[in-house]
Amino acid sequence: MSRDIWDPVTYAVYADERSRPFIELISRVGAVNPDYVVDAGCGSGELTVQLSNRWPGATIEGYDSSPAMITQARQLTTSIRFAVADVSTWRPDRPMDVIVSNAVLQWVPSHRNVLEHWMEDLAPGGWLAFQVPGNFDAPSHVAIRELCASRAWSDKLSDFTRGNPVDDPIEYLDLLHHGGAQVDAWETTYVHVLQGDNPVLDWVSGTALRPILDRLDPDEQRRFKSDLAKPLAEAYPARSYGTLFPFRRIFVVAQK
User: How many CB atoms lie within 10 A of CB 113?
Assistant: First the structure.
């Protein structure tokens, strides 16, 4: 991509809702005293600190492809090492005891190969834990795809057809079990209660829309979000207590 598309401030909106899957993911990791722990796609680093709290004796490293996110992470008061790196090409310099990846692999077309490499790079008995969104058929994503294909936007965005870039839990279990791992795979649909005038638009502005907005100039970005606001408000009507936003996520924890 032509520039760093990730904005830590925008992504931090609804931080509590975004952090819950991470906490539930690492709660299923059974490592007791790991020596080397990696957070692949660590973002702005706040959740990586949870790994340090869980395993205070470990050397912990976090990396992300976004320089803006890593700049933010390096401002944290922590001994964690943060670096800019690409999930698809990064390899550790020694065997890992734990590698965690939270809501990142959906952006990596080759992530199934990445998972196999990570399993190879684990120490005996090491743990791999990842979580990806499983909501690519949800009304939010359907609305985005339809708008990209519309007459107003097709000249710039008609090729933006990501479809469903992730597998279901059974497919991930098959992939990793064939390598001899013990695998725990499941899915959860969270029903977030969001606040604001059009909170689902705010949510996707920090995630699903980032590659789209990266193609547009500032005026086009404003117009695209304005065009998207109506179908999102119709798909997710506000209630007296907030806007309900169901969000399916897929979890996998494997021990080598």
Answer: 11
How far CA 207 is from CA of 5, 110, 204, in Å, comes to: 10, 19, 5
Measure Cα distances from 241 to 65, 79, 246 in Å: 37, 41, 15
d(CA 89, CA 92): 10
Residue 51 lies in a domain: yes
Nearest to 204 by CA among 236, 180, 159, 177: 236
Nearest partner of 108 among 92, 89, 126, judged by Cα: 89
The number of distinct structural domains making up the chain is 1
Residue 168, domain CATH = 3.40.50.150
The model's pTM is 0.91
Query: Residue 131 in contact with residue 25, Cβ under 8 Å?
Result: yes
The per-residue pLDDT for range 102-117, each reduced to its tens digit, is 999 999 999 999 999 9
Per residue in 103-162, pLDDT tens? 999 999 999 999 999 999 999 999 999 999 999 999 999 999 999 999 999 999 988 876
Residues 209 and 144: beta-carbon distance below 8 Å: yes
Residue 190 is assigned to a structural domain of this protein: yes
